[in-house]
Every structure is written in structure tokens, then in C-alpha cells.
Amino acid sequence: MERIGRRSSVLSVLLSSLALAPGCTCGRDTSVNTTTATVAAPEGAASAPPSPSAAAASSAVAAAVDAEGALFSAPIAGARAGGADVVAGLLAKSGTVRVMGLSGGQTTWTSDALKDVAWTPDAEILLQPSKSGLALVWHGLHAGKSGRTLVLLGPRGELQGAPIDIGSAFCATDAGVAWLEPRAGGPARVMARTWAQAPAAAVGSIPTDRDPALVCGDHDVMALGDGDDDLTFAAFTPGDPSMHPSVVAVRDADFGDDEEREHDAYTVGDDFGIVRVASSGAVALRQIPRGGAPTSWRRLKHSIPADDDVVAVDGDADATIVVFTHDADEACPGVGSTAEAVRAIRVGRKAGDESLLDLAPADCQRSPGPFWIASTPLGQAIGWVERLSKATTGSAPVVGAAVRLLTAGGSQSRRVEAASDALVDAGCDAQGCSLVALVRPTDGDGMQPEVLRVLAYP
Q1: H-type helices in 2-106, by residue range?
Q2: Which domains does the chain have, with CATH numbers?
Q3: pLDDT tens string 383-435
Q4: Could you tell me which residues come within 8 angstroms of residue 211 by beta carbon, excluding any fewer than 6 positions away?
Q5: Is the separation of the CB atoms in 366 and 340 below 8 Å?
């Protein structure tokens, strides 16, 4: 799933991961930011016992502690790859990003993907899996320089070449990997390579007067250029010598005086989807099949009020889903917290049915976000991290995750309790879905490195 918006950033832009929740402060940074974790403490020498609250959340729990007994600090990341779980985290004392494969609750491989890194308040790790390997991006200090570094790994963590300095976006498909070069004032060059063949080659560029982004399908990459009056994209498959001709996905003139508030892009297979939200709150969507012409805009009967925030957009063969939050400060008088209700619009792709879903009422004790949408073996799931609205001494800031499973028979609400300093969605495959939590030892205060635990959902 990818997002783009003139108000909000693209998911492939590394500073805006849906997966991360704030970690412990550890005396270094006391800010609360829903897109980054804020912990970087030195490693301990021994593994920590599992947290009872995390262990009780699922029957499929695995602890990620390597053979050397090393523990992790945030940022963390996770992915489902080949029916197994992959976790990644920071070993702050040694300045290493370590990646580990887990299967059946056991560590199957370990890879030190990147060395000479250092924690920063906005440090972040992103993992994107494919059938052929893993793409890992570290955002933070590397070799004393701040930036974004891409590392390609084989199915068992084998390093596939030297680290690559990249710009604001990257994504991976089954065919290969694409990224934007660091931009130095000119056009943004789009680079790509297949998993098997290196070096990378430039396949095209995005003009200086357009904001660049990348969205990946199963095989194709869409290079987006966001201009003042329209949004265009050019598709290609890693290994192609150049991008295909550009297609106009959104044209402001098609909507008269109802100016755009934001637009959000996603893919279903290799088909491109776009959702536009207008300043009036009107919502419209369209699809652009692979190699085909754009469909007509579909104007929805439901709207999104100006004060509500779109937090996730995605689709599959059954439906497109737009998730948004609504501030409800009046629900918590005297508490001083910002409470948010969670809602979604679901649009069936085949029958064309449309429904407004109330996913969760405002909660004075828990704050929702970041959010994600996943296609699970049981149906589409909408999930989000839940944090304590007000920090309490000695408590982990994250209390767990909420999941709303949408099935043909209706919807089900589920909650994964996992008191932790960071929690990320690791995605789904045909076997199931996973979360990765950075869990404190019993009676821990969040000042030491911790165990990574994998929990199953939905």
C-alpha cells in the first residue's frame, strides 16, 4: 500500500511510515511523534524475559534474540516473507542494523545489514519483501552523514551489493527495486535494478516543477509527478530501459471550483488506483488498469468533513477502503487529551456498493495511529497502533493494536494487547499476518535495549 497527498506525505517517502509508534524516551528525546520511535540505548548483555502481556496476546509468539544474546532498540521494522517473519532493529552500542528471519518461533538466519549507523530522533527502518529478497532502508546517520541508505538482501539476509544512498522514495516489486536519487535542485532521477542484475540504471526522471514519488505494484513501478494542476504517472518494470509514456491520473479541471484537499494512490496487483478528497469533503475515485485507459471518476455519496483526517487508503480485488479520523475533544472533558473516533468508507469494486463504517469511538485513554490496511486470509483488515493518551511513570507508551476485520458476514473487532515501546505492522501473506513489538523486561523502565516479539493477527 502506498499513499500520496498534497497535504500528507507518500508512504514510500521514508519520513512517514504507517508502521511505527513512538518508543520510550530513554532520556534522549521527550517528543511524541506518531511516525518515528525515539529510543536508542546501549545493548544489554543478556536476553530479557518475555512480557506476560505480549505473550498472552497470541498463540504464535516468537522472541527475536540472536545467538549472541543481543537486544534491540528502536527503530524496528518487520515483514512477512515466504511464510516466515523477518524483523529488524537497531543495535545501538555497536551501530548496527540487524535483520533476522524467524520461523516456528526460532531464529533461522541473522544478517548485519548495515554498520556504522547512529541513532537520531527521526531514525527509521523500513522493510519491503518480495519473492526474491528484501529491500531495507535506514533513515538516520550512516558513516557520519544524515540521509537514507538502501540495502538489498537475499531471501536469507545475504547482502546483495554495497549500500546505496537514495532520495525521498523507494519501493520493491517481485521484479526488482526502484528508488529516487538524492535530488540536488534538478529533475529527480528514477533508478531501478532487477533483483538478479546490477548495477542499477536510470529509467527516467521527474521534472523539477513536480513533487516526485514512487508506488509499487506486484511487478510494476509507478513514478508519480505531482504538479500544480494535475498528477501524472509513468509505469515501468525494473529491467525496462525506460519508463512508459506518462498518464494523467488527476486533473484539477475535471472538478471545477471544488479544489483538491488531497489525493491518495494505491495499487491492486499492477493496477493503479487513486482517491481524491476535495475541499468540500467530496470523495471521488478511479482505477487505471495496467496498460489501459483511466476509468471514469466515481463520485461517492459519503463525504469526509474538513476537520477529519484521511489516515490510510488501500484496495484489493473486493473493495477500496478510505480510513479517516474525527477529533472528539468534547468526549473527554477535563482530561486534556485529544480523542479521535475512527471511521472508514468502503466501496465494493464489483457490486459498487458503498458503506460508512464506524470502526471505533473516541477513547479518552488510548490514542490511535499509525494506521494500515491489509488483505488477510480472512478478509480485509484495518489496523492501528494504540498509545496511552497521557504518559504515566513507568508505563510503556504503546498498549497494543486494534484490528477491525471486514468479512462477507460483517465485521469483527479484535485487540492485540502488547505493552511495548514500539509496535509495527509486518504485513500479511497467505498464512497470516504479524506485528512486531519492542517489549520491555518485567519491571523494566524503557532505558535498556529490549526483546523483539512477533505476534499474530487478526
Answers
A1: 52-55
A2: 52-457 (2.130.10.120)
A3: 999 999 887 777 899 999 999 999 877 889 999 999 999 999 999 998 899 99
A4: 225, 226
A5: no
